[in-house]
């Protein structure tokens, strides 16, 4: 594939200029890995160079793995997409909607008008939000003394929803509840279920909620982008002894591991000689499940954590069962109907069944949706498609 010569200079120049500290990038078809490369450093303040097996916090790239776990249980009749999820998670059976605050600053709550379903959790239409993207939730957490979800405490999940289930798409902690539903339905802790039914079958030995000794030796430092565009390493790590494992964003892993997962989706549920999902389940996960609702831009309420964010800007987007779907082709070459999402520290992937290609780019920079990181991602993706076109023409 011609794209190695095209991609290497893109990522190398971004690292050499100091625009990003480092990155690992990979692309594959359903049959083979067609590109992989590692660039820059794991920590800009130290000498260790990036390697393809470097370990990243993949954050919300965890969501698709949790969605896969849930859909395995749906296939087996242990979970239902449309039954009230309160049947499995009793804490959600009497959920309250936060309608705002009165003149004295007291939260105004009312019962939700309909029950939450697994389908709504998987599509971010259940009503849950993130405080980093919803100032009212931040205000509610402060008023009630509720810990933020990033603490890994069960108390952090005892929050109201912002709208009635099924009435609006809003990015939030929905898939953390899916992880809890997987535990309740399977009788296994989420880390154990992942390992037994997804990670080990796919050969994803470097992916886990807890950072092992071998992974820690290859761990990439999270960096913060300051207002003057400079980067500095920061001390950041997902809690290693949480009360619950975050199905919405708790995993650490490598690019070679994650490409095994995305290739499984390209192969309609087969990976590493194992069938994880039935072909019809993969097709179902890849469909629009939010009807006339739309995936909307995510506006920042905590600028230190995230910028205003919209992936595939200007293109209509829908939501499948744990994936965002672009409804038109992108300027980079991604086909309409592709699946994608990202992680908070600027990790990104896409799965394009039409062109039979998937790509992963892992960086470790905060805030999310960093303009420079997005530019590198865009250039990488464009080069992958250019390489595919060249190979087709040859």
Care to count the β-strands? Answer: 16
Number of helices: 10
Q: Fraction of residues in helices?
A: 25-40%
Query: Helices and strands: which structural class?
Result: alpha+beta
Fill in the CATH topology of the largest domain.
Answer: Beta-lactamase
What form results from the Cα inertia axes?
globular
CATH class descriptor of the largest domain: Alpha Beta
Our measurement of the CA-to-CA distance between the termini, rounded to an integer number of angstroms, reads: 10 Å
Report the radius of gyration as a whole number of Å.
20 Å
The parts where pLDDT drops under 50 for at least 5 residues are none
- What spatial order of strands do you see in the largest sheet? 2-1-15-14-13-12-11
Query: How many structural domains?
Result: 2
- What portion of the residues fall into strands of 2 or more residues? 15-25%
In short:
With 394 residues, the protein is α+β, with helices and mostly antiparallel strands.
How would you portray this structure in words?
- It is a single chain.
- With 394 residues, the protein is an alpha+beta fold.
- The chain has 2 domains: 3-74 and 189-393, DD-peptidase/beta-lactamase superfamily (Beta-lactamase, 3-Layer(aba) Sandwich); 75-182, no CATH class.
- The protein is 29% helix and 17% strand.
- The chain is built from 10 helices and 16 strands.
- It has helices at residues 3-16, 62-75, 118-122, 135-144, 174-186, 190-202, 213-216, 255-266, 279-285, 371-393, and strands at 22-28, 33-40, 56-57, 96-101, 107-111, 223-225, 231-233, 252-253, 270-271, 274-275, 317-319, 324-326, 338-343, 347-352, 357-362, 365-366.
- The strands form 5 sheets. A 7-stranded antiparallel β-sheet has the order 2-1-15-14-13-12-11, sandwiched between helices. The protein has a 3-stranded mixed β-sheet with strand order 7-6-16, with no helix packed on it. The chain has a two-stranded antiparallel sheet with strand order 3-8.
- α1 runs antiparallel to α10, α2 (62-75) packs across α5 (174-186) and α2 (62-75) crosses α6.
- The relative contact order is 0.18.
- The model has no long low-confidence stretch (mean pLDDT 96).
């Amino acid at each position: 594939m011609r794209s190695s010569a095209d991609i290497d200079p893109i990522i190398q120049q971004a690292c050499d200029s100091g625009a990003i500290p480092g990155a690992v990038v990979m692309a594959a078809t359903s049959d083979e890995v067609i590109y992989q490369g590692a660039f820059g450093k794991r920590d800009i303040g130290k000498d260790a160079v990036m390697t393809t097996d470097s370990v990243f916090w993949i954050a919300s790239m965890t969501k698709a793995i949790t969605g896969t776990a849930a859909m395995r249980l749906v296939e087996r009749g242990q979970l239902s997409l449309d039954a009230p999820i309160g049947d499995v998670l009793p804490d959600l059976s009497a959920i309250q909607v936060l309608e705002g605050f009165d003149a004295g600053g007291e939260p105004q709550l009312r019962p939700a008008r309909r029950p939450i379903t697994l389908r709504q959790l998987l599509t971010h239409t259940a009503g849950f939000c993130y405080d980093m993207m919803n100032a009212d939730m931040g205000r509610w957490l402060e008023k009630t003394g509720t810990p933020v979800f990033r603490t890994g405490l069960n108390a952090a999940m005892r929050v109201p929803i912002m709208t009635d289930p099924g009435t609006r798409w809003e990015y939030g902690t929905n898939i953390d509840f899916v992880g809890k539903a997987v535990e309740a339905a399977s009788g296994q802790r989420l880390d154990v279920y992942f390992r037994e039914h997804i990670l080990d079958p796919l050969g994803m030995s470097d992916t886990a909620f807890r950072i092992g000794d071998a992974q820690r030796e290859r761990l990439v430092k999270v960096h913060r982008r300051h207002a003057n565009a400079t980067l500095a390493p920061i001390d950041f790590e997902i809690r290693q002894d949480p009360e619950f494992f975050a199905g919405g964003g708790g995993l650490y892993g490598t690019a070679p591991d994650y490409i095994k997962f995305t290739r499984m989706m390209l192969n309609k549920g087969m990976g590493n000689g194992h069938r994880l999902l039935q072909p019809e389940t993969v097709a179902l996960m890849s469909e629009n499940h939010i009807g006339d609702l739309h995936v909307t831009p995510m506006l920042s309420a905590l600028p230190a954590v995230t910028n205003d964010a919209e992936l595939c800007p200007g293109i209509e987007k829908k939501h499948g069962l744990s994936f965002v779907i672009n409804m038109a082709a992108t300027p980079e070459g991604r086909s309409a109907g592709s699946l994608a999402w990202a992680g908070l520290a600027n990790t990104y992937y896409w799965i394009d069944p039409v062109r039979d290609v998937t790509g992963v780019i892992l960086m470790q920079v905060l805030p999310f949706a960093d303009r420079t990181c997005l530019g590198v991602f865009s250039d990488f993706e464009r080069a992958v498609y250019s390489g595919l076109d060249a190979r087709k023409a040859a």
